[in-house]
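User: Quick sanity check before I run a bigger batch. Here is a single chain. Can you write out its predicted 3D structure?
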Amino acid sequence: MTRGGAGTGSVPAEGEESRLHTWMARQYPLSVTAMLSAISATYIVKERRGFGQTIRPLPGSVVASTALGSWDPEPDYFFHWLRDSAMVIDALRHVITEGSAAGEGLSRFQEFVAFSLSLNRLDGGMFLSESGDFRKKIDPAFLQFVRGDNELRAIAGDRVLGEPRFNPDATLDISKWSRPQHDGPAARAIVLMRYWPVKGLESAARVALRALIETDLRFTLEHWREPCFDLWEEELGQHYYTRLLQHVALAGGARWMQELGMEEAGHSCLTEAGEILQSLNEYWNAEAGFYESRRDTVNPAPGKGLDFAVILAIIHAGRREGAHSVQDPKVMATLTRLEDLFSVSYEINRNRPENLGPALGRYAGDKYFSGGAYYFSTLGAAEFYYLLAEVAAGTGPRLMMGNTASLARLGISEDADQKHHFQALLRRGDQFMATVAAYTPASGELSEQFDQATGAQTSAKSLAWSHAAFITAFHRREAALRAQNLAFETSASR
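Assistant: Done. Predicted structure follows.
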């Protein structure tokens, strides 16, 4: 379906804001329902016939896509990814705290913690000894896609956390894939620490939560220097996204551990977090004017340096100030370059209405499916500007100092007051949200991509991460509005 759903792109200037509000209010419960259906999806059975598998998800698993049959060729996303599940569980926190499905959400979260701990106990050698000759069940045509015994046997101890994905029935993924990936444990640690203050957790669940946080932090502490595959699972090397999440996980972990009296472990985390932060400065390409997404990659493909993964790193890490945050002029310069790239390269962005921001993808020359726009990239840009607006509500005109070019692009003069900064940033975020509305059908379905030429949805259907990205962007917008209202109330009371 092209430009289906809300049709935001066709509305006149007058009424655009109210139309967008109406669409967000309608989309929110649809995305919550879709995302919840991916957590503890025990109602689905996946027949992976080529591999001789019948997969029945366990409580606490997060299925990346619940669609059993989608496009041709079909992307099999019926897995529990560490990274994707962290994004979904982070969005679930908003559902819990705002109360629309608090009880159900809290129950799902506790199941998630228990399921995640069970994954940490998996062992490749034990799998081989218990499964016998598991290859007898596999279609001969699929044996070429199956991992060797030595690779499976190497999955032991904390190396299980280098696995990017698992079957949602808590078994190892036997297929060949891009391994290891180290962003998942760091992302999960960040998200789990955000849950630590949440009230209502059962005592046993809190003990399990602490154990899982400690495990993820320990893995990050010991393995952050090692090369791994990027979040797109394409290149082995050192990656900005992974490094920034590792820094934030360890910096936050240091504070968390010190509060719990774990002084020595906290000090180790803080020391390594500082070293990671220094290493992130090396990703700045002064000549090109953006943060490179990767370094020291094996057989690097051209054109991937400018990558939306950098912006996803900022918002997933929740960085509000300092270097490598929404206030970093170099980050803003990177986002500007990405907006310009996709404004020109995607047909759907050319001659778009003024109320729409450009639909955003991953990097130049992307060939995966349509190589099109991603919902979570376009929503990521919206969330970036909403977070910046929230920060602006407190910092005022000081926010964008040293960022003159970005101010001009947003229509803000250097002497503009706090209110104008806030409004311009919120408006920019709304432009990206309106783009998502324009390419979302009335059903609220959010796939992984929408085609760069037609706007038709492509790749995996009903992607849990896409719905999670909408939920977090929506709540970031609400937080920005609350921050601005508080700022006005404080100013009026003086």
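The first strand starts at residue 46 and ends at 48.

User: Great, the batch can go ahead then.
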